[in-house]
Structures are given as structure tokens and as C-alpha cells.
Design goal:
The protein is α/β, with parallel strands linked by helices. 38% of the residues lie in helices and 14% in strands. It has helices at 19-28, 45-54, 72-77, 84-97, 110-116, 143-148, 158-161, 166-176, and strands at residues 10-15, 36-40, 60-64, 102-104, 121-124, 153-154. Strands 1-2-3-4-5-6 form a six-stranded parallel beta sheet. It binds ligand LLZGTKA7.
């Protein structure tokens, strides 16, 4: 339906599997002609290389670095030492080396990511307009902050979908940009 409306399709599949399986999934979605597909950067370089190779020519493949619902402490609990910032930078570099088009990161890192990858495509979720409920997100910034810091695409879910008047909420956010 979205495709029939002529709107670009963002498939946030967050693929995370061995290279052969991820490549098969990428081939299976050719029919949808997605503009953007996500894979987990922590799946490794070979997986990302094969994902990109199997994607349609017009599909941007972006690597999810570290979920915006996690902070430094959550990262440590997964067995990874160091800060969220450092982890995102490491996975950004790996995504770039693998030939991806860009990454997914929080608005707290997008300025640094943009500084080291000038022509990358950066998807930023975890966005909250001032005063709106944070919910399960931990690394949040406002949509305006993310845009000013170099985000290519803003992902805004519940502040719009759970608003009493979603269309009005979207307009109010747009007015801040
Ligand atoms: O690190 C990530 C990666 C993806 N998401 C996705 O973005 C939206 C955010 O929804 P909100 O309601 O605005 O929190 C959701 O679909 C997530 O799966 C993310 O939040 N963080």
C-alpha cells in the first residue's frame, strides 16, 4: 500500500544472522523495492558486505549500531567495555568499511558520526520533542537537535502515533525543524 502511494519504504528489519541467511532475506525483499533496509552492524563485516551485495541497486543498507533504548550500563551488561559513544563509533567504521550506505545511531552520537563520515546516510530514532514521554528510550534528543547535528532521516514513533491527534502532533514537530 505504501509503495502504491509512491512513498519510499523504510524496512526496519534489523537483520541479524549469518551472511548467507541475511543475503537471502535481502534478495527476498527485492519485490518491495525498499528505499532503506536495516541490518545489525554487530553481525560483522562479512554479513554486512553480503547484505549490501544482495540488496537492490536503489536500496540503502544501513547498520544499526547500538539500540537507542540502551545506555552505557546496559552495554557493559552485554559484556562490552567502554562507552556507548565509543561503541557506536567502532560500529560506524565497520559499517563503512563493509560498504554500507550509512548507520542508525542516537542523536547523541550523530554529530561525531557525521564528522567522520561526511557522505554517510544517518537514520536517527530515539527522538522526543521537549516534554514528551521518553518511555523505553534512553539515548534521546529532540528532533531539532538531531537534524542540526546531521541526521539524514528522523524516526519519530510514539510522540506521533500515541498522540490524541497524530496529524497535529506531526505538524507541531515539523514546525520545530
Ligand atoms: O536504535 C534503534 C533502532 C530502531 N528503533 C526503532 O525506531 C522506532 C522508535 O519509536 P519511538 O516510538 O519513537 O520510540 C521504533 O520502531 C524502534 O524499533 C529505535 O527506537 N532505536
Amino acid at each position: 500500500m505504501i509503495g502504491q502511494l509512491g512513498l519510499p519504504i523504510f524496512l526496519d528489519l534489523k537483520l541479524y544472522d549469518i551472511p548467507n541467511t541475511v543475503a537471502g532475506a535481502m534478495q527476498a525483499i527485492h519485490v518491495l523495492e525498499p528505499s532503506i533496509v536495516t541490518v545489525h552492524a554487530s553481525g560483522g563485516r562479512a554479513m554486512m558486505e553480503d547484505a549490501k551485495a544482495a540488496a537492490s541497486e536503489n536500496t540503502k543498507v544501513v547498520g544499526v549500531t547500538m539500540l537507542t533504548s540502551m545506555d552505557d550500563q546496559d552495554l557493559t551488561r552485554t559484556g562490552i567495555d567502554g562507552s556507548a559513544h565509543d561503541h557506536v563509533m567502532r560500529l560506524t567504521d565497520l559499517s563503512r568499511e563493509a560498504g554500507l550506505d550509512g548507520i542508525v545511531c542516537s542523536g547523541q552520537e550523530v554529530k561525531s558520526v557525521h564528522d567522520r563520515w561526511k557522505d554517510g546516510f544517518f537514520v536517527v530514532p530515539g527522538l522526543r520533542p521537549a516534554g514528551s514521554a521518553v518511555g523505553d528510550q534512553k539515548r534521546v534528543v529532540t528532533p531539532r537537535q538531531a537534524r542540526d547535528d546531521g541526521a539524514s532521516a528522523l524516526v519519530i514513533g510514539r510522540p506521533i502515533s500515541r498522540a490524541a491527534d497524530p496529524a497535529q502532533a506531526a505538524r507541531e514537530i515539523e514546525a520545530t525543524l
